[in-house]
């Protein structure tokens, strides 16, 4: 298995949205609500407890800090502060049961491969995509909703650096 790093959205982004109720992208207004479904928080990568957790919906560029061209879309974070998912923890277990699309990119946003995973066997799909030498990172999206969930990088070839990335 190729060593991987799971990259959730930076804490700085989540905290700023909580503080300003504005998206980092074009400062679009954010929206706070009680969770109506068990979508994941893009910061801690845990699923929301329906009718219990409060969350903020905002617009996020899923290529932020990685590519020059943006691709904004809707994401959620917990309204209250939460711990960022640890990058070396492997695939988030709470998300294993939901269908995800893995898109493999080379720098310059070149889409080089795609895998639809419905059976929870994410490691095999990640391995297959990273077997392509030109693949620099993988974007993980919800297959049913189409929203960005998190990024996967090669642990030995990170595309971003620093504690916030
Ligand atoms: Zn969270």
Rg calc: 15 Å
Count the DSSP helices.
Answer: 2
**Sheet with most strands: strand arrangement:** 1-8-7-5-6
> What best-fitting shape do the alpha-carbon axes yield?
globular
* Number of DSSP-assigned strands: 8
Strand content: 25-35%
- Ligands bound to this protein structure: zinc ion
- Average predicted confidence as pLDDT: 95
- The percent of residues in helical segments reads 10-25%
Order of helices and strands: EHEEEEEHEE
* Uncertain parts: none
Supply the helix-strand structural class: mainly beta
Distance between the termini: 23 Å
Describe the main β-sheet briefly.
Answer: 5 strands, antiparallel
Structure description:
- There is one protein chain.
- A five-stranded antiparallel sheet has the order 1-8-7-5-6, with helices on one face.
- The chain contains two helices and eight strands.
- The model has no long low-confidence stretch (mean pLDDT 95).
- With 165 residues, it is mainly beta.
- A hairpin with a 3-residue loop joins β5 and β6 (110-117).
- Bound molecules: zinc ion.
- Zinc ion binds next to β4.
